[in-house]
Amino acid sequence: MSTSPVETVPSAGDTVPGPRPADLHAPVIDWFGENARDLPWRRPEAGAWGVMVSEFMLQQTPVSRVLPIYEEWMRRWPTPGDLAAESTGEAVRAWGRLGYPRRALRLHAAAAAIAERYEGQVPADHHLLLALPGVGEYTAAAVASFAYGQRHAVLDTNVRRVFARAAGGSQYPPNATTAAERRLARAMLPEEPATAARWAAATMELGALVCTARKPDCSACPIADQCAWRRAGTPAHDGPERRGQTYAGTDRQVRGKLLAVLRESIDPVSRATLDQVWNKPEQRNRALRGLLTDGLVERLPDGTYRLPGA
């Protein structure tokens, strides 16, 4: 594999020249063809709705946790109309312990909009996808690319890390997506839409399986010889400190415990029952207020609590 780039692309930090995009496309896509995981949302029968559900669920959540919830969700609600016909509370209940349960509310809202505006069919147009409730730039690009084979830059954490290393010469991308990263991602796209969609999926998989955050397996990487970070001697990250998210003892944990009680109960739950889940009243009350504000919990006139519209 050649290690002498003929031209460069703009890097995420505009400091280290990277290889030509065309030199990366074939090896990464070929690697994907041989190593891609068999995930249910990648199968043809998943359709655009299956892709959309997976993208909502996979945000900040590993595949291993998503798989059982996704499969149950698609069995129960195989179309947007099926989900839209249910209460938001049932969506929150079925979300289980995936975390960040507001995603369930947003997915329910998107399903309702699809059922109302597009006769239950997930739109293919990127701008229409972006106009759906709860759908941001990443999700719109991912659905348009993975479900409809369109040419869009799909920038999740894994892709950003691959591009930061291979084209930018940095160990990690910035903490927040930058305009430079978006320009780089567009510059890296193959011209042919179907190939671009395959490239998007392939770079995401490469970041998830090989070019991982803590222990990248460069020996298994199809573009290791061309990687700007390796060419630079794998310099250590010199930007802001990267801190892992904590969970134990946080309001997020308390919210999760409160929601777990409500999910497991068919009937409304008393305040006394909720008070048993955490022994710090101030934090417990704050977490409950947050759930009420976010629309994840309802307080009934008799003082009991339930999932919204359950």
UniProtKB/TrEMBL annotation:
Cofactor needs: [4Fe-4S] cluster
Domain HhH-GPD: 57-209
Reactions catalysed according to its record: Hydrolyzes free adenine bases from 7,8-dihydro-8-oxoguanine:adenine mismatched double-stranded DNA, leaving an apurinic site
PROSITE patterns assigned to the protein according to its UniProt record, in alphabetical order: ENDONUCLEASE_III_2
Keywords, in A-Z order: 4Fe-4S, DNA damage, DNA repair, Glycosidase, Hydrolase, Iron, Iron-sulfur, Metal-binding
Enzyme class, spelled out: hydrolase
Region Disordered, residue ranges: 1-22
Enzyme Commission no: 3.2.2.31
Record flagged with keyword Transcription: no
Classification via CDD domains: ENDO3c
Coiled coil: none
Iron-sulfur is among the record's keywords: yes
Family of the protein in this entry: Belongs to the Nth/MutY family.
Protein name stated in the entry: Adenine DNA glycosylase
